[in-house]
Amino acid sequence: MSHPAPKPRPTTRKPSDNHSSRIDQHGEDETDKFQKFERWLIANGAQFPCLELRKYDNSDRYKDLDANADAMSSSSNHEEVVEEENESEEKKDGGIIATTEGGNPPSSRQHSNNIDDGSDEMRGVHALTTLPPSAVIVSIPLRCLITVEMGQTTPIGRKILASDLELDAPKHIFLMIYLLWDKWTNGDKSFFAPYYAVLPKRLRNMPIFWDEEELRYLEGSHLLSQISDRIAAITRDYHSVCSAAPEFASISTLEEFTWARTIVCSRNFGLMINGRRTSALVPHADMLNHHRPRETKWTFCEETQCFTITTLKEIGAGEQVYDSYGQKCNHRFLLNYGFCVEKNVEIDGFCPNEISLELGRWGDAFKPEDIYCDGSPQGERGRLYKLYRGDDRECMEKKLAFWTRGDSDVVGVDFFGSSWHALATSVGRAGGSVSSIMESTLGTNPHGMDATGSRLAEALIVPPPSSSPQPIVLPTKRIRVCVSNNENTRVLFSMLRVLACNSAELDRISWGGRTATAAGQRLYGVPGMASPSAPFRTCRDIRYPISLRNERCAMEILREITENALSKYPTSLSQDAADLQDENAYPKYSNKRHAKLQVHGEKEVLHHFALWARTAIHVIDIILHELAHEIKLVTHSVSAANHANGLGDGMSETESLNEELGYDYVIQAMEDDDDCHTTILRYCADVLGAVRRDELNQIATEVMGIERRDHGL
Questions:
Q1: How many CA atoms lie within 13 A of 406 on its CB side?
Q2: CA distance 635 to 384
Q3: What would the pLDDT profile of 137-191 be if each residue is shown by its tens digit?
Q4: Pair 353, 600: CB distance under 8 Å
Q5: Angle separating helix axes 254-267 and 223-244, nearest 10 degrees
């Protein structure tokens, strides 16, 4: 049960006085705008009596912060159990930039709330007195919030709703519309003028505003494409709004629209207000910086009609008061908030940093004309051909049909890009939805394509520049994965298995047949038998190895993908680690350092999956060697039983299996190795181990069949 925060000590100044004393060296105008902001909130019923907004000067920017962090380190070891997320409370969709180092308080944290108007200042919210757990420390009345509905009721918002525009971020758009329209219409007379005055004028920390030199620090990262896509989406939205409401062009320029989008993206809260889910800008609440694990929670209280922030633990006097922007990958922090976390690790050791892997066509290293179906490698294309050995044209057509089967709106997977929509148009499906295009590939013939689907497949057969055989190109799919055996990792392995399929395996997974074993049922709950009426639905559903051959080929593809991705970066992982130690060349909280943190995190994930692939290939080779040895042993034993003068035990000393190179020995060595990641160990021990047992059982079953036959049973 929450209760009001304790009143500050009588000797404590009022928040405005504290604030004034912190920033007066920057001029009276700047001081006044924050005093006016706080007085405006308090006059309209807001309460934050135990908090003060501090500005960190360049001279002692982190002196107080480091002291607070040290105090937190000594007073809090994070053993306190923090309550689970309130299911009725959304994560904050955006916030002011900040960073922490995982679950443990670092010696220095980033404290931003950057008012980036050239003064290079940072701000944070601090406790004036000790705050107990479950104390309501911030209360902002509904009338001080800017909501989506307010933007929808403006003249511009009504025209947007009437036009039924397809916008990249509709909720963000309506918050932006209100902000821009109100500033233009009412100016200094706006009710929200004191709030507008303290919003940052420039946002140079946000990647969409970086210059070319800063963007070069992200070379090799998929984040560059995301930045480009974000800029393009904002531009499209601006022109769409202007087309629906031409007068908007006189209210806002594209540059102002981009500024508003970034303000809203980095500050809005997803809320349930009076039974309606919406988003809102919440003055003062958006001043809290980020920290994990969370120390406060926020919600909209219908009883008081206020947005509230409540403590989850005791916060000492003078300590900074934090919000949590959620458990996120650094690319999301950087793109949406303008910072990267130095050590983005949760208390349990989980790191949410991700890498976006491209499957289907292998990026810049492998071009469409490299994929030929006549069985002949083309010079340097031989390496790629090895991944498709046995793939004739019929196999590739089957693979295309299964690869494109299913929905396009799968969480974590970007199934089809602009090239796919262009191909759809080229086969006469203009105006149709992606799902209708997909449905056209799911006919009743063995290849899963009707006449329209066949034309779609033909459109994907891209003519090479010469008279060489025509290649078949699979549409690119992207999936984000982190160092974890989570759902996205399982989807990645499923898609790799489809890419590695030969024709017979594609028939089995597409139209029925024995695709899994009892071990598969135990591990993943998949059926041991699939019938033609119950095939695997999509390329993300293959949760158990199809065969050792297929699994090895899938791991080869994974190794190729990760090595290709790593080759695009100009520096190595070890060089990045060394660079981050040099705070003179890579100053803390600089765009240059944040870019380095981003690519360093990506490479860590890539190296993890590259090691996973290499280890899996090694273990599979050991299993294949053991199985070959077992078959040879069984063959000799059967021969000895049928011939009195046979080979005895059938094996010489030199032919016996070296147990030190065997599967059990390798798995034990992995278990004893503290540096072996648990995801790789469990895959090799549980998944590959189950396949190995099934194969050995299959050999034993076949031997029993031979013996029964030989004895006439």
A1: 21
A2: 36
A3: 999 999 999 999 999 999 999 999 999 888 988 999 999 999 999 999 999 999 9
A4: no
A5: 120
The tokens describing 472, both together, are 């078949």
Taking the complete model, does pTM exceed 0.90, yes or no? no
Structure tokens at 177: 């519309």
Q: What share of the chain is helix, strand, coil (3-state, %, to 5)?
A: 50, 10, 40
Residue type, 199: L
Which amino acid, 58?
Answer: N
How confident is the model at residue 702, as a pLDDT? Answer: 76
Distance of alpha carbon 32 from alpha carbon 58, whole angstroms: 20
Residue 449, pLDDT above cutoff 90: no
Q: If you average pLDDT over residues 615-638, what whole number do you get? A: 86
According to DSSP, residue 102 is labeled T
> pLDDT tens across 271-323, in order?
999 999 999 999 999 999 999 899 999 999 999 999 999 999 999 999 999 99
> Is the confidence at residue 465, as pLDDT, over 70?
no
What is the strand order of the sheet 477-482 is part of? Answer: 354-359, 477-482, 413-414
Amino acid code (one letter) for 376: S
Kindly list the distances between the CA atom of residue 37 and the CA atoms of 17, 19, 26, in Å, as whole numbers in the listed order. 13, 11, 17
SS3 string, 241-273, reads HHHHCCCHHHHCCHHHHHHHHHHHHHHCEEEEE
State how beta strands 3-4 and 135-141 pair.
parallel
CB 346 within 8 A of CB 103: yes
| Maximal CA-CA distance, the chain | 108
Give the integer Cα–Cα distance in Å for 179 and 266. 14
Task: Give the CB-side neighbour count of residue 389, counting CA atoms within 13 A.
Answer: 11
The answer to whether 679 and 484 have CB atoms below 8 angstroms apart is yes
List the structure tokens of 319: 């300590």
The answer to whether 523 and 571 are in contact (CB under 8 A) is no
Tokens of 321: 């008061």
For residue 447, is it left (φ>0), alpha (ψ between -120 and 50) or beta? Answer: alpha
Report the distance separating Cα 357 and Cα 234, nearest Å.
25
Question: Which single residue is written with the structure tokens 């946002």?
Answer: 203
Separation of alpha carbons 123 and 259, rounded Å: 20
Residues in the chain: 713
Q: What is the DSSP letter of 687?
A: I
Domains of the chain, CATH where assigned: 1-346 (3.90.1410.10), 361-475 (no CATH), 481-713 (no CATH)
DSSP secondary structure code for residue 474 in this structure: P
Tell which residue, 220, 225, 345, 330, has the closest CA to residue 597: 330
Contacts of 592 (CB under 8 A, 6+ apart): 214, 217, 586
Q: Is pLDDT of 536 > 80?
A: no
Mean per-residue pLDDT over the chain, rounded: 75
Strands 276-281 and 146-147: antiparallel
CA distances 170 to 148, 159, 272, Å, are 9, 13, 17
SS3 category, 614: helix
